[in-house]
UniProtKB/TrEMBL annotation:
GO molecular function, one term: 3-oxoadipate enol-lactonase activity
Enzyme class of the recorded protein, top EC level: hydrolase
Residue ranges occupied by any AB hydrolase-1 domain in the UniProt entry: 17-243
Signal peptide: none
SUPFAM superfamilies with a match to the protein in the record: alpha/beta-Hydrolases
Record-given protein name: 3-oxoadipate enol-lactonase
Pfam families: Abhydrolase_1 (PF00561)
Protein EC: 3.1.1.24
Keywords: Hydrolase
Length: 258
């Protein structure tokens, strides 16, 4: 388990409560832009980072596992001299968050798990997507990816934003994307969810075709002691981007209650 120094952007007061945002497969830290200003206005120190193999972070050779992504997060906290942080993770970022909640509970103040899964099968789907990306590049999966990230109505209203997100996916290095597919392929956190002790909010998009709430989000909320589930209407997989006001309201409500 060798951590890599992930690219990060840190904003806000040094003495503010720290909130770290971990992103989706195929994204970079720009996916969290809708949440930054509202949290800064409430006095939080906001840390966003690119997952290994994504954005401006290093692209070590695969395979990757959740243990590796968790190690990167812990190394980030150590590098910033942060003892404990709130973690907001979407999709792959939420998976890493659950792993950390089990394996590094002393470093996690709370969890917000957005549009994610504790077991995201079938494994063959992820193996096939990794093969496609290694053969054809991430541009080959950018269109379908945005089709899962956003509802058809939002795509129709905001073609410019859809194009921005397609370019975001297309810019991800093929090895990084494919190796993260492997981490998801091998993931199964269902049985360890009861070990998570951090206060946890689970947020789902009602129209998420990738991780439908009843199939993916509810088992997480049911498995983590005391977790709460909120389902946001008119949101697909990148719910924080499509419904930023509601996702941000729920995140702030959870953080400020603590």
């Amino acid at each position: 388990m060798d951590a890599v120094p992930v690219h990060r952007v840190v904003e806000g007061p040094e003495d503010g409560p720290v909130v770290v945002f971990a992103g989706s497969l195929g994204s970079d830290l720009r996916m969290w832009e809708p949440q930054v200003v509202p949290l800064l206005e409430r006095g939080f120190r906001v840390v966003r980072y690119d997952t290994r193999g994504h954005g401006a972070s290093p692209v070590p050779p695969g395979p990757y596992d959740l243990e590796d992504l968790g190690a990167d997060f812990l190394a980030l906290l150590d590098d910033l001299d942060i003892a404990k942080a709130h973690l907001v993770g979407l999709s792959l970022g939420g998976m890493a968050g659950m792993w950390l909640g089990v394996h590094a509970p002393d470093r996690i103040a709370s969890l917000v798990l957005c549009c994610t899964s504790a077991k995201f099968g079938p494994p063959e789907m992820w193996a096939e997507r990794a093969r496609t990306v290694r053969a054809e590049g991430t541009a080959a999966v950018a269109g379908p990816g945005v089709g899962r990230w956003l509802t058809p109505a939002y795509l129709g209203r905001h073609p410019d934003r859809a194009a921005f997100l397609r370019s975001m996916i297309s810019e991800v290095p093929a090895e990084g994307y494919a190796s993260c597919c492997g981490a998801i392929e091998r993931m199964d956190l269902l049985d360890v969810l009861p070990k998570i002790t951090a206060p946890t909010l689970v947020i789902a998009g009602a129209d998420d075709p990738a991780t439908p709430p009843e199939e993916h989000s509810r088992p997480i909320a049911d498995g983590i002691p005391g977790a709460r589930l909120e389902i946001v209407a008119d949101a697909a997989h990148l719910g924080n981007y499509e419904q930023p006001e509601e996702f941000t309201r729920l995140i702030l409500e959870h953080l400020e209650a603590l």
